[in-house]
Amino acid sequence: MIQRPQSIFLLIVVIAEILVIAGWPLWTKTGMSGETAQVFISEWTSQIQGKAHVEANYIPLILLLISVALTAYILFQFKNRMRQMALGLVNSMLIAATMGYSFYTIYKKTIPLFNPEMQGAYDLGFYALIVALLANMIANRLIRKDEMLVQSSNRMR
After folding, report:
1. Residues 2-49: tens digit of each pLDDT
2. pLDDT, tens digit, for every residue of 47-103?
3. List of residues 6+ apart from 72 with CB closer than 8 A
4. Spatial distance between the Cα atoms of 125 and 98, rounded to a whole number of angstroms
5. Do residues 125 and 28 touch, judged by C-beta distance below 8 A?
6. Radius of gyration of the chain (CA)
7. What whole-number distance in Å separates Cα of residue 73 and Cα of residue 53?
8. Which end of the chain has less neighbouring CB within 10 Å, N or C?
9. What are the TM regions of this chain, as residue ranges (predicted)?
């Protein structure tokens, strides 16, 4: 049944991930003399002394696209809750890997560009990834709760 509470949380995961893919920045840094650096899910850009630099970053984009497809698949696997739980765990790992690679990009590639003592600020895209991870974990917990309820009712018969 698609009307279950975990379905709502899985839809939240899909929406948050699509917003990140659509172009919400994960991190932004602006220097004193106008330098800027931004990290998106598919690239990171910088502009230092009028020179723009763009570097593609396809690994987190691919991970997030797989996660969106997996979440949509999980949503329609409501008849097999054990499969839903297992795939939900894999989905959590994909989202966490996306966040981890984004951290790597931020701290190893973009912070050292200019003013390394300035850290920058996380943007809406990063918080959307956190919302997606938390919503996925809540959905998994609700799926587990459903499975335990079904098992307990089977024992009573």
Report:
1. 668 899 999 999 999 999 999 899 999 888 888 888 899 998 888 887
2. 887 788 888 989 999 999 999 999 999 999 888 889 999 999 999 999 999 999 999
3. 14
4. 12
5. no
6. 19
7. 37
8. C
9. 7-27, 58-78, 85-104, 124-143
**Encoded amino acid at 115, one letter:** N
> In the structure encoding, which two tokens stand for residue 26, read together?
């994960």
One-character DSSP codes across the chain: -TTSHHHHHHHHHHHHHHHHHHT--SEEEE-TTS-EEEE-SSEEEEEETTEEEEEE-HHHHHHHHHHHHHHHHHHT-TT-HHHHHHHHHHHHHHHHHHHHHHHHIIIIIIGGGS-TT---EE-HHHHHHHHHHHHHHHHHHHHHHHHHHHHHHHHH-
Q: Which two tokens stand for residue 17?
A: 């991930």
Beta strand pairing call for 27-30 and 51-56: unpaired
Spatial neighbors of 65 by CB under 8 A, at least 6 apart, are: 21
- Cα 19 → chain centroid: 10
Single-letter residue type at 141: R
3-state secondary structure (DSSP) of residue 78: coil
